[in-house]
User: Which sequence fits this backbone?
């Protein structure tokens, strides 16, 4: 059994695998280690011929608060500072690596069912937008919040959400950085169904995964491949472009102000510099 630092990796029956975000004390905030663990988990699933479907869920009250700013800035902070071409190139490589790690549910050939409870913020939305089926609890809340912290979302939401919820709804979420509830999410098409509580959510997600696992894996994986093939080129172009964009513009006074405001627990004052 695969052992990871920030995730649990479990089996249910012969063909269903669960990937469980396991930092509940920190709201499952997405640290650099969690991103690495996600990639390792989905690489293991991809290599496992007995795995036919995946449930992606989280321990605790919330799916994820999004990027762990404290740990991320400690490890990646130097990449967000100024510099010439060498630093810009290195930052672009960091973004590309994070895109690959977050996109595991998409590039994995086995269908992934996301089960969301409580908050799903920022990187969490990037992660579930890479999944095939999304379910949530009645208390779920979603937010594409990067604009609040001086960052253009660059890990997949801007590329994948338009095909899931449409261009207009994606623009609304990305440009306002607002929070939406489960009812709005299901009306948008972000989630397929709302379950009463976490227990019912996990049971339904496992049921969906088991239904998939009982079908021909060749056909199921073929369906996912064909559906992805219709979108992959545009998504990859978009991911590549935003990596280049952020490598040029992420290092800004506004980002520094956003980080300072976060740690000082105040509202940031942006100046567009």
Assistant:
């Amino acid at each position: 059994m695969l052992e990871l630092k920030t995730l649990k990796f479990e089996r249910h029956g012969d063909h269903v695998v669960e990937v469980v975000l396991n930092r509940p004390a920190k709201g499952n905030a997405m640290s650099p280690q969690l991103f690495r663990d996600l990639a390792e988990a989905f690489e293991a699933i991809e290599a496992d011929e007995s795995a036919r479907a995946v449930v992606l869920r989280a321990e605790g009250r919330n799916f994820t608060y999004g990027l762990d700013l404290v740990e991320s800035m400690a490890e990646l902070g130097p990449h967000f500072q100024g510099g010439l071409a060498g630093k810009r190139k290195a930052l672009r490589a960091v973004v590309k690596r994070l895109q690959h790690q977050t996109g595991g549910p998409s590039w994995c050939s086995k269908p992934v069912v996301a089960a969301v409870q409580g908050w799903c913020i920022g990187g969490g939305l990037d992660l579930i937008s890479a999944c095939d089926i999304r379910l949530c609890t009645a208390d779920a809340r979603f937010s594409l919040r990067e604009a609040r912290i001086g960052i253009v979302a660059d890990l997949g939401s801007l590329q994948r959400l338009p095909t899931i919820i449409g261009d207009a709804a994606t623009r609304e979420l990305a440009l306002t950085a607002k929070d939406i509830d489960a009812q709005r999410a299901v009306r948008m098409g972000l989630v397929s169904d709302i379950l009463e509580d976490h227990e019912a959510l996990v049971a339904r997600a496992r049921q969906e995964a088991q239904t998939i696992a009982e079908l021909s894996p060749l056909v199921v994986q073929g369906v996912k491949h064909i559906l992805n093939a219709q979108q992959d080129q545009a998504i990859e172009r978009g991911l590549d472009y935003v990596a280049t964009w952020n490598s040029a513009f992420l290092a800004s006074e506004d980002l520094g102000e956003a980080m300072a405001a976060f740690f000082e627990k105040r509202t940031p004052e942006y100046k567009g510099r």
Observations:
- The first strand starts at residue 7 and ends at 12.
- Residues 85-102 form the longest helix (18 residues).
